[in-house]
Design a protein that fits this description.
The chain is of the alpha+beta class and 614 residues long. The protein is built from 16 helices and 28 strands.
Length: 614
């Protein structure tokens, strides 16, 4: 059990990233610590300013803790089966109590429910609520009202309804109460625009039951029945929780600025939707039987990328916004003093050639899976991308890892340009639209020839990060996965061997050979977890099934106690790093499980449910 004093004393938080669990409503999400504290919540949407920002600062930047008044002897927690409802059980000298946390899917405005249930004896509990709007910088006006409080500042209003009396103390809201066996104490926190009407109260127990039914109905659609079903389903539930229901977009993570190296500067805002994630996410959803979610993700993608191919972003806002201005928040000291804290992401301005391949592959996969044609004209989109690639594929770019150094001729980028042309050719051959096949087959062959000639180093017996370099890059593991080369090709085999030799650290795969001249940033980060899943996929393609399973299960072992993974991992300190939980990592887990298990069953139909609506 982590010491509670840093939290309750109002000082610097030192809680491992993996000690958090996520709850959400498919519009935003909150992180709940093992100590029963909500230390991160952006409202009303994933990319809105946080009202609880202690995760990136101190408890004074906003949190909501409900914990035993006396230090617990043990803490156990779990999600209710097939749901995103979190149970945290506290064992004390005098009894035990369970804290239930969830958000209501289907609610027009964010609604967060917390219930303390006595399960044995008597347990004294302590509540501390610090509301700070605009990422912990704005102290609201708080007043007692009805059976709770209201807090207002500018456009934001929060209404908290409580079963126990609340009182203000030192710019905080506090309460102390005791629960006995069988007793329940409920709290209902709702956000709404300060100019709007206060939401009607809910019957908390009924709302939680409806939410559990909604999640379980959704989970029952999962078609995966292999040996890792629990891990796959938990990852799929996490992906659903990261879905922005109004548009169908899926955010990379609900957090910003969790560091890739403690004390480092690689701290980015991931509360947006990356085009690069589209293909692998769509594959995971289709494999698992979630056709409706796959269709909505494809439609979000087509709406977002509509326009001139020369203006194609690599990342978009939840509604498809293109401008994601990057700012620093100096009043937040950062997670474990890893500054700066950033909002927005300047990567939206980068040119990354590979996203054309991701878009084309996503549309191809969707058609292959039998999804009906999209609302948008695929022919016009396809032709526009091909004509753009014909003149721009040889230009340098920033690459898959969003390098902030000079543009280079990255091999992965060229490979994905080949994927774009290949998928559009194959779609035309299947009669989905008409293009000049001879013209585009020449382009496909030219890209392939150049990549194999300039991107392969014979002395290293491996493809390299960019033309003429001696650097390695784990993104090259995608070559056989996207069909650029057969997995048995000696060059593909040699690349896997080189990555095993030079990019693996204590059993996990790093992204690339780090060179500040290439990535424009100081050295230092954990191992990038999706790359380790890609290596397991390559093992399986090479017929090395036992090694693939060992790699996959090694990754499963580093999940936290409720099955969540972040972006990166430090195998020495055994800590998760980077934004958390990370969609890309959970997508990798789902896809690798299917690769190791076999083909999925026929998808089930989507249920008709209103979720947690009143």
């Amino acid at each position: 059990m982590t010491n509670l004093e840093p939290l309750l004393g109002g000082g610097f938080l030192s809680i491992p990233i993996e000690d958090y669990a996520m709850i959400g409503d498919c519009r935003t999400a909150a992180l709940v610590s093992k100590q029963g504290s909500i230390d991160w919540l952006c409202i009303p949407y994933f990319d809105s300013p946080a009202c609880f920002a202690a995760l990136l600062g101190t408890s004074e930047n906003g949190h909501w803790s409900i914990v035993p008044a006396d230090p617990p002897r043990a803490v156990r927690r779990s999600y209710r089966d097939g749901s995103l409802i979190l149970n945290t059980q506290f064992e004390t000298e005098t009894g035990s109590a369970t804290l239930v946390d969830c958000m209501l899917p289907g609610s027009e405005t964010p609604e967060l429910l917390r219930v303390v249930e006595g399960t044995r004896g008597r347990v004294r509990m302590k509540l501390e609520l610090v509301i700070r709007f605009d990422y912990g910088s704005v102290v609201p006006w708080v007043r007692s009202i009805g059976n709770g409080i209201s807090a207002i500042a500018g456009p934001d209003m929060i209404r908290l309804r409580s079963d126990v009396p609340l009182h203000g103390q030192d710019m905080k809201t506090e309460a102390e109460f005791t629960v006995t066996e069988g007793q329940k104490v409920s709290f209902d926190l709702a956000w709404y625009p300060s100019h709007g009407r206060e939401p009607e109260p809910v019957v908390v127990e009924t709302a939680i039951q409806n939410t559990e039914s909604w999640w379980r109905e959704w989970s029952e659609r999962c078609t995966y029945q292999g040996k890792w079903r629990d891990a796959v389903l938990r990852s799929l539930i996490t992906l659903k929780g990261l879905t922005f229901q109004p548009t169908g977009g899926i955010v990379a993570s609900p957090t910003t600025s969790l560091p890739e190296l403690l004390g480092g500067v690689r701290n980015w805002d991931y509360r947006f939707c990356w085009v690069r994630d589209a293909t692998l996410t769509l594959q995971a959803l289709l494999n698992a039987g979630y056709l409706e979610e796959a269709r909505e993700w494809r439609e979000w993608l087509l709406r977002a990328v509509a326009g001139s191919p020369s203006e194609l972003n690599i990342v978009y806002g939840l509604h498809g916004e293109r401008r994601l201005t990057e700012l620093e928040l100096p009043w937040l000291q950062g997670y474990e003093k890893s500054a700066p804290v950033r909002t927005g992401n300047a990567a939206y301005q980068q040119y990354q050639l590979d996203i054309f391949g991701e878009v084309a592959n996503t549309l191809f996969q969707a058609s292959e899976a039998g999804l009906e044609p999209p609302e948008h004209d695929r022919h016009e989109i396809a032709l526009a991308m091909l004509e753009f690639l014909e003149t721009r594929w040889e230009h340098p770019d920033e690459g898959i890892w969003e390098m902030r150094g000079p543009r280079r001729q990255f091999v992965h980028s060229k490979m994905m340009a080949w994927v774009a042309v290949d998928r559009l050719i194959r779609s035309s051959e299947k009669g989905r639209f008409t293009i000049d096949l001879s013209r585009w087959k020449k382009l496909r062959a030219a890209i392939h020839e150049q990549v194999c000639r300039q991107g392969f180093d014979a002395d290293m017996n491996s493809f390299v990060q960019y033309y003429g370099s001696k650097h390695l890059d784990a993104s090259l593991l995608m070559m056989p996965l996207v069909g650029f080369l057969p997995p048995t090709d000696s060059r593909a085999v040699g690349t896997v061997k080189a990555i095993e030799t030079h990019l693996m650290k204590d059993g996990f795969v790093g992204r690339y050979t780090q060179d500040p001249e290439v990535d424009g940033l100081p050295h230092g980060e954990g191992t990038f977890l999706p790359c380790s899943f890609w290596l397991a996929d390559n093992y399986e393609l090479h017929g090395r099934h036992a090694e693939a399973v060992r790699m996959f299960e090694r990754l499963l072992e580093i999940r936290n106690d409720v099955g969540l993974l972040s972006e990166e991992y430090d195998p020495i300190a055994k800590r998760q790093l980077g934004n958390f939980p990370q969609a890309f990592t959970h997508v990798g887990l789902v896809n690798t499980a299917f690769n190791l298990t076999g083909r999925p069953k026929k998808p089930n139909a989507a249920p008709k449910s209103d979720g947690g609506k009143r």
